[in-house]
Amino acid sequence: MRKITARVYRFDKEKDREAHFEEYTVEVNEGARVLHLLHAIHDTLDPTLSYRYCCGSGQCGSCAVRVNREPVLACMEEARDKITIEPLNLPVKKDLVVDLVPTLETIASLKPSDAQKMPKKSDIDAIKPLRDCIECLCCVSVCPAMDVIKFLGPTAMRQEMRLALDPRNIDDRITAAVQEGLFTCTSCQACWKVCPKEIEIPGKAIEKLRYFANKKGLTLPRHQEVAALVKETGRSVTRIEPTFMELMNADVIEPTGPVKATVGFFIGCMYNMRLPKTALDAIEVLRRNGIRVIIPKEQICCGSPLIRTGQLAFLDTLKKRNIDAFWNRHIDTVMTMCAGCGSTLKNDYKTPFVVMDINEVLTKYGIEPPERLPVRATYHDPCHLLRGQGIYDQPRQLIRQVVDLIDMPSICCGSGGGVKSGMPEEAAALGERRGEEIKKTGADIVISSCPFCEFHIAGHTDKPVKNITTLLLEGYKEKDRKTRTLTDPPGN
């Protein structure tokens, strides 16, 4: 047995004006789950505590709560000392009990045809990744789009895809999904990461629904324009100034000292066409830290804007051109700087080379310590870096070498999944939410590692927004300035 102390959310609308937390200390067996902890509190200390449970084995979904702000099944999550237990981010009925009915009522049901149609094996195989849902609504509780715009949410979209794949169903579920907010998903992947059954809703449901919507001519006009631009120019954005590729005179950039590693640089559309100065900053940081950089000029858009919006007609052409651009140069490690490009190359391509984000490259090979700057910074986790690539620690390790870091919740800024171009009002609302979180930190600057996030957040905060490599370069420039001051003769 061991003692565990937990803070538990309490709210009884018949007695309480507002919600509050109560702290409990109880004894539970070693390895006890959060559900066992709640049982112990209820049985020995406070029988008024309300929470749901049924099977106790991760199959019914009824005991879903938030532990330290993350949705989990109470029966599966290990109880640890000093945890905070809250209800899901849904309307609260009492304490940890939330109202599931309004959301569950939106989930479509199969409407069978009169004809005897049975699923083929290929249909069943396609449906399998979607049918394990236990309707716990963990995914719904973390969906950013549902907070700011009309959207039935991830579990409803999962069901729409399941029904669309079932030949027994006679409804037009694709058109229904579009009407229910299919194109409001930002592809942040939060729903997938908290799903206790690990259902990959963004990739297996939403993007496939968008593909079928595209085949029916239901793709948003702005998304069609982006696809046309990629097909015509090889880039998803237009040129507004000299591009990074144009500014680089050589396609092999040697480091200033001994070579630690050689990488091929997949630049991406935004850093090439809209934020070339940031990419140039990255090159300077890489050179200073012993990284030889090869930049194949044949590379084009990775295709992420097309995949996220279901426009796959010429995706294979993009993939082949990009793979050939690096593999023909005998490059075995490709470095990305854009979170979306990196996630796409890692998860949507089958590459003969290793793909690494620039934060992974710099932390793997180590960096020269920069000068610390008297600045407080907060870091925005790009969704395609944090959830798409699982990169959390590396950016923070780099940032803390230059400035004091104040963390904030990892919430989508609204720039991904085609939302910024296709649903600008939603993107703006999510951007404002991000701006509010930034303000709460009291930080002087905002750091990120994604061009879309940097570009979008800059429009929703009065704080400077910088890339990690720009911050590192500023630290190096300050270090060089101090060195010159110490070595310059007096009077110079």
Structure in words:
The protein has 492 residues and is an alpha/beta fold. It has 4 domains: 2-98, Ubiquitin-like (UB roll); 103-215, Fumarate Reductase Iron-sulfur Protein, Chain B, domain 2; 239-365, Rossmann fold; 376-479, Rossmann fold, CATH 3.40.50. The chain is built from 23 helices and 16 strands. It has helices at residues 34-44, 101-104, 121-127, 138-142, 145-148, 154-165, 173-179, 190-194, 201-215, 221-233, 244-247, 269-273, 276-288, 304-308, 315-327, 339-347, 358-365, 383-389, 393-399, 419-422, 424-441, 451-457, 468-487, and strands spanning 2-10, 20-28, 64-67, 70-73, 83-86, 92-94, 97-98, 252-253, 261-266, 291-294, 333-336, 354-357, 376-379, 404-406, 445-448, 465-467. The protein has a 5-stranded mixed sheet with strand order 2-1-5-3-4. The protein has a 5-stranded mixed sheet with strand order 8-10-9-11-12. A hairpin with a 2-residue loop joins β3 and β4 (70-73). α6 (154-165) runs antiparallel to α7, α6 (154-165) packs across α9 (201-215) and α7 packs across α9. The longest helix has 20 residues, at 468-487. The chain is globular and about 80 Å long. The N and C termini lie far apart (72 Å).
Brief descriptors of the model:
single chain, alpha/beta, Ubiquitin-like (UB roll), Fumarate Reductase Iron-sulfur Protein, Chain B, domain 2, Rossmann fold, 4 domains, five-stranded mixed beta sheet, 16 strands
